[in-house]
Write a structure and sequence with these properties.
Blueprint: H1 3-25, H2 28-35, H3 39-43, H4 49-73, H5 78-99, H6 103-113, H7 115-136, H8 142-155, H9 164-182
Helix pairs in contact: 1-2, 1-4, 1-6, 4-5, 4-7, 5-6, 5-8, 5-9, 7-8, 8-9
Amino acid sequence: MSDDEKLEAILGAAYECFRLHGVRRTTMDDIARHAGMSRPAVYQHVRNKEDAFRRLATRLFSQAMADFRAGLDADAPFPERLALALAAKLRLVIKVWSESPHAEELLGEGVKLTADLVFEAHATTLDALTAAVHAERPDADAEEFAELLMALGRGLEVRSADPDVPLRRLRHGVALLVAGLDHPATA
């Protein structure tokens, strides 16, 4: 097994352990056992469970960002492209909520371990949304509109019995916001 394959096995095992036990209760022994490796073999690829969590978060954020960009680049109407892009991050949060009884810890406590990654993903997302809005509606306040879109997405990051509900509400909310761009209220 190559080093990359070993790291993937470790990160997959780490996800399972964090999902099942949370970050605080997971041990390096748990990760090694789930990966089918010895602890010393795991330590050759990650320094500790916090390092495993950060590497896992980096991988998940990278995939979500690739999906976000694909949504923005989709051959679809503007509101649908925005909804597709924002749904990428929302799906990641929904996945954690639906798969783990420790989601609150993973999304709260875990963010403390990855605050810089979260900040970078937020900034990248905001910049890309601002550029997309500006390209589509040059007369709009693109940055303000992008912030509203981000707030809509964050507001929908809640546990739901039906994971399709937040995604449906996201599509509907984006459509309403874009309609507001086309028909601004007069004050």
